[in-house]
Amino acid sequence: MIIVMMVMMMSVLGVTQTSTFPNVISVQAAQDAVHQVAESSKETTTMAAEEASRQTQSALDTAADKASDTIKKFGHKLGTK
């Protein structure tokens, strides 16, 4: 999968084969492609972590609201007895 992504990235960047060795891609171009894939992966991971954090906080807020409502209802029931 990573190799496929590297080849795709290299084609997007316009990386071409060398004329002396048609089946060899320059080392620098390969390193650049790997670096860009790594940076993209970091950004994706960061975005996913931030979204997971937002969703977790939302779920916690919802649970806290429900717990608070339940406690209030229980308090009212005790008060009417």
Summed up:
The chain is mostly helical. Helix content is 81%, strand content 0%. It is rod-shaped.
Descriptive keywords:
rod-shaped; 81 residues; mainly alpha
Structural description of this entry:
Keywords: Signal. This is Si:ch211-59p23.1. By secondary structure, the protein is mainly alpha-helical. It has one domain. The protein contains two helices and no strands. The chain starts with a helix and ends with a helix.
Radius of gyration: 27 Å
Helical amount: over 70%
What's the total count of β strands? 0
Biggest sheet overview? none
Integer average pLDDT: 80
Number of helices: 2
Write the layout of secondary structure elements.
Blueprint: H1 2-13, H2 27-80
